[in-house]
Amino acid sequence: MASQSCAAALLGGLANVNTTAANFICGQLDAINQKLTDTTYAVDNTYLLFSAYLVFAMQLGFAMLCAGSVRAKNTMNIMLTNVLDAAAGGLSYYLFGYAFAFGGPSNGFIGRHFFGLSDFPSPSADYSFFLYQWAFAIAAAGITSGSIAERTQFVAYLIYSSFLTGFVYPIVSHWFWSSDGWASPTRTSGSLLFGSGVIDFAGSGVVHMVGGVAGLWGALIEGPRIGRFDRSGRSVALRGHSASLVVLGSFMLWFGWYGFNPGSFLTIAKSYGKSSVYYGQWSAIGRTAVTTTLAGCTAALTTLFSKRLLVGHWNVIDVCNGLLAGFAAITSGCSVVEPWAAIVCGFVAAWVLIGLNMLAAKVKFDDPLEATQLHGGCGAWGVLFTGLFATKKYVAEVYGSGRPYGLLMGGGGKLLAAQVIEILVVSGWVTATMLPLFYGLQKMSLLRISREDETAGMDLTRHGGFAYAYHDEDDGFAKPAMYMMGRIEPSPQANPL
């Protein structure tokens, strides 16, 4: 039909062009158009696949961060749980999770198609999209594992990880990211929430709050680690055994966040109009990478100097956590705010983390990786931040014109109201699902390990031996000599150079 219309146009406009020539020209034009369309799909899918690989590389960052943040006697255990998050999450998300999240057409609450990727790919999604969303799902599970580290039975990890990635997280992502979700800004049927929908571009609420709130309930039900608070209730630092691994993990997460936030555009070959040939979605992707960077850097520096004033020394672990707090906060609004606003986001995120850590110590809440405070608290701040600082121009580019935007940018309070709704429903949903799960596991004696196992360390009692020959100075358990390392002191007679 397109070729016939093209031929008719040529014949009508050029009297000397015969039908055969017109059909030939139009056929060549159709072929060129199809080739350009195929190339656009190929470029967009390659971009999405590359972003998925970056997000998956964050699992290595989580593993290194977790390993360095726990004591040496639990290193193998925490590393194994990170592998489990990816493996168990892969199967559960393939069988159920993706269908619940993006199985449209469906209702506003839950998806109902593509179980086990049946009838896939579809006009709306390809395998690259599934892979990208799976990487997000296992990131949420990885957050929770940090909150309950060093005291949780292995079977509990299996159960909660599969449940979180296969059901809890997919429902939330359906609400806010699916075109059928009741609060999605891209909803195609029915009215948008407050005329806007929730803007949670890469998941400050959908990913980070889900993992943080789940970790909150797991850590509360299990209680603090042995020795975390003394008999008088004072906080006792149970320091991780390797700052080097923490720094390595933080840099890996920083690298992966460039797939997490900019990659959430899903496509790159899209123009924003004819006003500037150099400006398009590729420019928005670059801006998103910049806002992500600025928020993390600002939070890291704010944490550095703030902790120096509060405790009197420069602490690289605190700086790394501050860096990640900035990233978790900017994830919601990274695509719709100006770079200067990202600096505000990072500055406030650092103080949110510091304040929540103080509160946690006061109420005797023990989270070895500060995951609840970092991802849950700073994620909630990031959702609110978007409702305050989203700009009219960028909201129109990403989501369409005529939408409400940030309150402090002159856009009224509708977007902020939608963001508050997200915080409430995410907290409520995760509480309603994960609290009974952790409570049931505790009642069945499947959640927390025994006191003896916790004192000895799970590497020795549950995993066949230590990760390496090492000794925790705060560990009262007498390890066999073959696992001990002695400190080599310089000889008094040594001649200094």
TrEMBL record:
It is a multi-pass membrane protein. Belongs to the ammonia transporter channel (TC 1.A.11.2) family. The chain crosses the membrane at residues 46-70, 91-110, 130-148, 155-177, 197-221, 242-260, 280-304, 316-333, 339-361, 373-395, 415-441. One of its GO terms (biological process) is ammonium homeostasis. PROSITE patterns: AMMONIUM_TRANSP (PS01219). It is found in: Cell membrane; Membrane. One of its GO terms (cellular component) is plasma membrane. Residues 47-468 form the Ammonium transporter AmtB-like domain. Pfam families: Ammonium_transp. Signal peptide: none annotated. This is Ammonium transporter. Its main location: membrane. It comes from Arachis hypogaea (Peanut). Keywords: Ammonia transport, Membrane, Transmembrane, Transmembrane helix, Transport. One of its GO terms (molecular function) is ammonium channel activity.
